[in-house]
């Protein structure tokens, strides 16, 4: 089984291989090693902005079980387990998981779009479920979130990150010679170039912020917290090229989602 995932958008590059909806899992198989190398760079926005903000919203994970959907090599989840998380599971297509992982951590190859059909997840409940830049490739986003919601333990929540939609609108407006508004509200799938492998172009469906809110609601979830993390002043001075990128493309949105009691 495979997991269709998306990736963090700390990138600009050129490419030639199109990642159509039916090929996105294959694209991630090719990109996974490049992503891990990019994430490890000193100036990676994942290291400087995204993971610190995600970690803060997760809070104390001691004694908590975590499901990381689209976990890459599992490095972030392993960090959480070393920090006290227990009975945790990472799901990803690549199979390129950490060779040495802590106890209480299990890795599974499974399909993001068929999360409710992964045998080794059947009947399991988790205190925290993570979609860290993996939600964007769900073929049926409502179904995927409903499946995750059903796996939440009492008082559990979903932590979901998504590229700021304005980032893609800016890029597409520049590429197509159109306006920001035209591209932000366009419903057509679009392609962009991966920054981790200069042979791969990814294709995604567009979202507006209201689209995301409506998807969450349809899945029986409500937004407890939403944040748009930025570079610290110190990091901005140390890495002015990253500050310039953030000033133009805004970065990511992070949502802390809870089940709606009426669903």
From TrEMBL:
Cross-referenced SUPFAM superfamilies: S-adenosyl-L-methionine-dependent methyltransferases
InterPro entries assigned to the protein according to its UniProt record, in alphabetical order: SAM-dependent_MTases_sf (IPR029063)
Spans annotated as Disordered: 7-26
Pfam families: Methyltransf_23
Alphabetical list of Gene3D superfamilies matching this protein: Vaccinia Virus protein VP39
UniProtKB keywords: Methyltransferase, Transferase
Any GO BP annotation: methylation
Alphabetized CDD domains for the sequence: AdoMet_MTases
Taxonomy, superkingdom: Bacteria
GO molecular function: methyltransferase activity
Biased composition (Polar residues): 8-26
PANTHER family hit by this protein: TRANS-ACONITATE 2-METHYLTRANSFERASE-RELATED
Protein name as catalogued: Methyltransferase family protein
Organism: Kribbella kalugense
Origin organism lineage: Bacteria, Bacillati, Actinomycetota, Actinomycetes, Propionibacteriales
């Amino acid at each position: 089984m495979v997991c269709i995932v998306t990736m963090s958008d700390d990138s600009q590059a050129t490419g030639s291989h199109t990642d159509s909806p039916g090929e996105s899992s294959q694209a991630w198989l090719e990109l996974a090693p490049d992503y891990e190398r990019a994430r490890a760079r000193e100036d990676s926005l994942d290291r400087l902005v995204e993971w610190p903000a995600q970690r803060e919203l997760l809070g104390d994970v001691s004694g908590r079980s975590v499901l990381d959907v689209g976990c890459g090599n599992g490095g972030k989840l392993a960090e959480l387990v070393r920090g006290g998380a227990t009975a945790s599971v990472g799901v990803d297509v690549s199979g390129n998981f950490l060779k040495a992982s802590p106890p209480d951590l299990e890795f599974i190859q499974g399909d993001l779009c068929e999360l409710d059909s992964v045998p080794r997840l059947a009947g399991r409940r988790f205190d925290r479920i993570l979609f860290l830049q993996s939600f964007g490739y769900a073929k049926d986003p409502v179904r995927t979130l409903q499946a995750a919601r059903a796996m939440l333990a009492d008082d559990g929540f979903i932590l979901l990150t998504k590229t700021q939609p304005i980032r893609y609108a800016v890029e597409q407006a520049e590429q197509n010679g159109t306006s920001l508004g035209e591209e932000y509200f366009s419903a057509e799938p679009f392609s962009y170039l991966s920054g981790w492998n200069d042979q791969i172009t990814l294709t995604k469906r567009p979202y507006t912020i209201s689209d995301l809110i409506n998807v969450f609601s349809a899945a029986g979830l409500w937004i407890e917290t939403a944040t748009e993390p930025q570079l610290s002043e110190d990091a901005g001075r140390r890495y002015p090229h990253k500050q310039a990128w953030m000033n133009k493309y805004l970065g990511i949105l992070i949502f802390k989602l809870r089940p709606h009691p009426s669903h």
